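mind reviewing these tokens:
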Amino acid sequence: MSKSAQKAEGTGKPFPVEYNGVTYTVPTPLDWDADVLELLESGRLTSALRMILGDDQYEEFRATKPKLRHAGELMEAINAAGGTGN
């Protein structure tokens, strides 16, 4: 878990995640809605990312014309920074 994620987890504040030259700010995984978990469990990655990133940041991500691999890599970066593993 990154130091910024550890601090965020303790305070409940969002933390930065770097991916493909862009810094996204995401809520600590402990504050993700149950809906996010259900979307991830059912394989609805893009819907989960939209909820995690929020509409504005998600549209910024979409503007990069991402492929499925990029969505997976961004989720991996979020998980790694947040210390949630898979």
Notes: The chain has a mean pLDDT of 88. The chain has four helices and two strands. The longest helix spans residues 45-62.
